[in-house]
Amino acid sequence: MSALLDVEDLRVSFPSRSGPVEAVRGVSFTLGRERLGIVGESGSGKSQTGRAILGLTPPPGRTEARRLTFDGKDLRHASAAEWRAIRGKRISMVMQDPKFSLNPVMTVGRQLMEAAARGTAARDARAQALAMLEAVQIREPERVFRAYPHELSGGMGQRAMIAMMLITEPDLLIADEPTSALDVTVQIEVLRILDRLVRERGMGLIFISHDLRLVSSFCDRVLVMYAGKVVEELRASELTKARHPYTQGLFNCLPRIEGDRRPLPVLERDADWAR
Amino acid sequence: MTELADQEGRRGALPPLFGRILRLAVQLAVTLFGLLFVTFLIGRVVPIDPVLAAVGDRASASTYHKVYIELGLDKPIWEQFLIYADHVLHGDLGKSVLTGRPVLDDIASVFPATLELSTFAILIGTCIGVPAGVWAAVRQGKLVDQLVRVLGLVGYSAPIFWLGLLGLLFFYADLGWVGGPGRIGIAYQFDVTRITGLMLVDTALEGQWDAFWNAFSHIVLPGSLLGYYSMAYISRMTRSFMLAELGQEYIITARVKGVSEWRIVWGHALRNAAVPLVTVIALSYGYLLQGAVLTETIFAWPGIGMYLTNSLGSADMNAVLGATLVIGATFVMLNLLADLLYTLLDPRVRRGQ
Amino acid sequence: MMSGAFSREWLLTDAPASRGQARAGQAYRSWLALKSNRLAMVGLCIIAALVLMAIFADVLAPYDPITGHLNTERLLPPSWKHLLGTDDLGRDIWSRIVYGSRLTLMVVTLVAVIATPVGLLVGTISGYFGGFVDTVLMRITDIFLAFPQLVLALAFVSALGPGIENAIIAISITSWPPYARLARAETLTIRNADFIAATQLQGASSLRIIWGHVVPLCLSSVVIRVTLDMAGIILVAAGLGFLGLGAQPPQPEWGAMIAEGRQFIIDHWWVATMPGIAIFLVALGFNFLGDGLRDVLDPRAQK
Known about the structure:
The complex is a heterotrimer. Chain A is α/β, with parallel strands linked by helices. Chain A is built from ten helices and eleven strands. In chain A, the strands form two sheets. A six-stranded mixed β-sheet of chain A has the order 7-8-9-3-10-11, sandwiched between helices. In chain A, strand 8 (172-176), helix 8 and strand 9 form a beta-alpha-beta unit. The longest helix of chain A is centred in the last third of the chain and has 18 residues, at 184-201. Chain A is globular and about 60 Å long. By secondary structure, chain B is mainly alpha-helical. Chain B has one domain (2-47, 93-350): Orthogonal Bundle (MetI-like fold), CATH 1.10.3720. In chain B, helix 1 packs across helix 2, helix 13 runs parallel beside helix 14 (304-313) and helix 13 (261-299) runs antiparallel to helix 15. Chain B is globular, with a radius of gyration of 24 Å. Chain C is an all-alpha fold. Chain C has twelve helices and no strands. Chain C has helices spanning 8-12, 19-35, 38-55, 57-60, 93-129, 131-145, 149-160, 164-191, 194-201, 206-242, 254-262, 270-297. In chain C, helix 3 crosses helix 12 (270-297) and helix 5 (93-129) packs parallel to helix 8. The mean pLDDT of chain C is 86.
């Protein structure tokens, strides 16, 4: 299996009054057509990693890497036109909250059609959009097509978002906390849809989350990030064998039904981990 | 705004749009009534004796008394206000001492001139200000941004009557590029048939192109000056709205989709920024009325601003208060219009939550 | 301890030892940010120059601003003897502009002193009590906001009679509504705070709470807003002066000076141009400074 994405020594930094602050500090991994989870607490750099892969580090941030190749193409010096050819068509991203990630003054349908490959005739794009809405198990695709984002529930909005991101059948999907903003009851449903589509279409997936258990049940491999670095990489099935104290801490934080949990464990931190 | 719609939606008694319009109408009525009250109060503080103003100082004591009663000055103040309100609501703003005609007729004849001038100005202000603001936001912190910012601040700082004088001196007296004071050259003045009262429109409708270009050469300087002022405001607001929109998540979504930068800026971000921008444009249209007062004086433009200042000069209180009231009411109407447009542009308000 | 006070390190420390130190540090950081803004510094210099000009007018002005030499020095163009020329009454324009700075400063200061407390009081009372009081006060505010400022000020001055005092009153009457709006919004955000509730439980009167707790918290943002409005106030005052409703001759008010020079504009351009430049520079100074202040104090606008 040749690598779809190859990242080596990825760094993202933001300038501040007291010199640049690095949000991502030397992350390396390779990805085939598999499902990779990236776990970490907020501020660990997991979202910035996802955005850097798409070249979407918000200015004035800067991205550097020793190697950043997607399907053989070097992304470090990609031009605006080259990026546009990759984004959406080859790599796409589902973001956290459909309340903010969908354009409020455009109908869902127009936003879907906009995502369809350029050069597609309007009627075909519309048909594709409706088919895609059906694929994410929306029962009344016509109605949702005409709706504005605020008229949809969170779960519906996120399904529309997934539909929008998969309409071009990309090779790689980055899902950045795709269910964190949703009600717990809806989360599983949305995840199941995402899981099925990714499996069916044989895409690579990078699943970014703070929820270790969710990630482990959903991915093949897990990267654990702390303070901008990968502190541990493991197979999802071998999570219990985690050696790094931070991973163990994350794992032990999860509530269990059986057994007394007193005193409640607190996540330990060690300045050494961030070195 | 969305909060309002939210509350109404939850109450659920009325469809949101209808409830909104009803609320706006009530607000409008209260504000207009308030305007009336303010002008009434101003009228009451005047040290000029309204009876003397009407009868002249040679009148006998009995005439004086008769007019005193006629004007209702013996009645309690709230009753006087009601009488005043009643008159105004029936279109009676009193008689102008200066022209001897009803103030409302006077205003009706001068208002189109102001309307033409401010429309010309707002078109310039919007057509330049919006793209300039968008450009500045896209290139934030770069040279263009600084340039737009400084041009805007200069516009905020120069007294318009002074710029007008210098403009006349330079472009009219020295270079002869534009027409001088007034709306149209004397040669054409009596040829133009009054249809809408807007010179440019009337001459174009009649096919009098000579007159049209002459009128254009007269409006271009005051119109551009006023336009510059609204441009300063509009570009600044556009910039800040655009910056806010460009930082939103849906912009990232659009980028992820591979949408071109041009479309992201003009199609996605500006479409969202347009919602509050409409209010800004309507507001600056209203502020042009204020700028017009000074500009019209400089350019001898026979609009409501010049009417107001002329009446001020001769202490013609009926005319002053009438003009103030009309300007205030226009301002309120523009605000209302902005609110309605806002509703049309924002699907979150239009279709309820 | 004192040796360390007010040093750079003391101000910029991440762990201030007292509230005073924290506040001083905050102010110092804002100042640093403002200092790096070139336009704001230009603005500050202009305003400083204006204040100095007003203080040392007697020294800076070579001639009397009120009486000139009618026979020999009418409408002279700028020269070494009269830097900015003379007007139709033979008065030195530079001297008039120098003395006029006092009028400008007076107008700005008095309007700020009158309009700020009114706006603050109306806004805090409205926000604190809410309900009926709020509705009534905000309606009144809206009505005042419904007139363009200059037009309403014109109407007021025409009723009160022309003159600089009446112009100041009219501008003040028309300036407070935005401050009231702002103060109300600020009050609404703190009205339900716990410390307000605690004070209420201690039995403090509403007046005491508003005056002692709400007003101080709203003060800074309102004062900033007033600073931002200074340029506008200067322009409205100049507009009133130009229309002959502000300062009366022979007072050297800049707007009125433009009006006096208007009739000679074609042949003697400097008479109307010079005071206009003065108004423009001062308004620009306030605008530059205000713009910089907004960048520093409004975190959303920061780059």
